[in-house]
Amino acid sequence: MAPIDPHSFTDSAHPLTTHISLTLFFDFPSSTISSATLLSLPTPYTGPLTFDTRSLSVSSVLDPLSLSPLPFSLSPDSPILGQSLTVSLSNQTQILILSKTSPSSSALQWLSPPQTFNKTHPFVYTQCQSIHARSIFPCQDTPAARVKYAAKLNIPRQLSAVMAARHVERRDPLPSEAQGVCEDSVWCGDDRVVEEFVMEQPIPPYLFAFAVGELGFREVGPRTRVYAEAVNEVLDAAAKEFAGTEEMIQVGEKLFGPYDWERFDLLVLPPSFPYGGMENPRMVFLTPTVIKGDASGAQVVAHELAHSWTGNLITNKNNDHFWLNEGFTTYAERRIVEVVQGEDIAALNIGIGWRGLVEEMERFKDTMEFTKLKTNQAGVDPDDVYSQVPYEKGFQFLWRIERQIGRPAFDDFLKKYIATFKFQSIDTDMFLSFLKANIPGIENEIDLKLWTEGTGIPPDAMEPVSNIYSKIVSLANEFKLGRMPREDEVADWKGQEWELYLENLPKSVEASQVSRGICGGTRKLARTPRL
């Protein structure tokens, strides 16, 4: 066996799935989903075929044409990878697997009615990155295996569903489509409805996403709706915060080429969502904490939008090359922000990122492997080593190339890179080969190996230079002397300014420092905006 990904059981000698058809029955009382997963291969295959699972109860594996059982086995459980499901095929192109999720599925967050805004109906949403799709349905859970999919979600009639896919229709259930996930009478209950979706572009499994609950929406642009729980205050605040989304999409298209996903909808999730945002194609997931009332939450939207080109369109082949997703996206995000919000805000973001990168060096001082761009994560849970390094060191690497060859040349390179590798999964070596082929001699100007395989921060990385950045850092340094900023010095500050200021304060503060600052004439810190 030769794995193609340190975080997957997928064998390099086996064919990769090209399409998945999902039939899902949601049972909120038990916090489980019963599923029929129809996996399609490009050509008939004979031999063992291995899939990833985690905490799934697999009841049967069938030939979908004859409905005859296929031999299968599950490996012992691995705390990081879960269990491999190996199926023996004989000239088949499709496999039908019946399974059920665990209430503790690592990809699913089930919320009881008291945990929602309206406190009337339950809610469930997914978070499949990095290796959690396997806890919903069996799959080759590696970014190397890009798939198209279709999905039928059978849910309580009083709820609605959204997916990171095109919505086909909402309709009554049909008895012929249950695929064995439950009895036809249960599937077709009067209290049930089917929401049908299709994803017609090949995506990595970690971008599979849905949410089910009492949802509403607001139109904010020709390609964008903002969804959230059906609470007018939340929906109106979200619509106001993200009113400039279409402008950002148009800026992204000018910088990086056509937007290939048709829709760019946003879902504001309940506060339990563990990230700022998740770049699910067509349906970005967002935490409600990005709604700040001053449009600065658009910063997160800019990052998730940038993923539409770098991450979703071109994807890292596995998590060892995560910087190809996040470094490129951080660079692209700041280019979009620079156009929409100005150079000062972009510089502030670079400064916040620089501070975060410096802090990560301290965090990983005993495991410097994870300060590299090209890492070795074999035997390591990717969630345990998640950090700002691939984002900020990756950004610094691309910014260094831009400074070397000039922005116009780098813009041309980026567009060509995206057009060349769209809908593919690549690794660092493939990127470097493309870089050297299209920017001849770049390896003589920049130490590419040091940047991608070296630990720490390379000496030609650069802290940002701007008046507002320098002013805020200077004010933070003055805090050590007991002086807080005056009202007039912070009157125009929004989220990014305060974030940069706070990031540069000492990690521990003496009470006397705070009291001296307050006595010096400002109480502004007591009214710090929500960050």
Automatic annotation (TrEMBL):
EC number: 3.3.2.10
Keyword Metal-binding listed: yes
Catalytic activity, reaction form: an epoxide + H2O = an ethanediol
Domain (Peptidase M1 membrane alanine aminopeptidase) ranges: 247-437
Localization annotation: Cytoplasm
Protein's GO biological process: proteolysis
Keywords noted in UniProt: Aminopeptidase, Cytoplasm, Hydrolase, Metal-binding, Metalloprotease, Protease, Zinc
Annotated Aminopeptidase N-like N-terminal domain residues: 118-162
Positions annotated as active site in the UniProt record: E304 (proton acceptor), Y391 (proton donor)
Residues annotated as binding Zn(2+): H303, H307, E326
Cofactor note as given: Binds 1 zinc ion per subunit.
Tree of life domain: Eukaryota
InterPro entries: Aminopeptidase_N-like_N, Aminopeptidase_N-like_N_sf, LTA4H_cat, M1_LTA4H, Peptidase_M1, Peptidase_M1_dom, Peptidase_M4/M1_CTD_sf
Gene3D superfamilies, per database record: 3.30.2010.30, Neutral Protease Domain 2, tricorn interacting facor f3 domain
GO cellular component, one term: cytoplasm
Cofactor(s) in the UniProt record: Zn(2+)
Keyword Cytoplasm tagged: yes
Function recorded in the entry: Aminopeptidase that preferentially cleaves di- and tripeptides. Also has low epoxide hydrolase activity (in vitro). Can hydrolyze the epoxide leukotriene LTA(4) but it forms preferentially 5,6-dihydroxy-7,9,11,14-eicosatetraenoic acid rather than the cytokine leukotriene B(4) as the product compared to the homologous mammalian enzyme (in vitro).
Similarity section: Belongs to the peptidase M1 family.
Name of the protein described by the UniProt record: Leucine aminopeptidase
Originating gene: LOC107776257
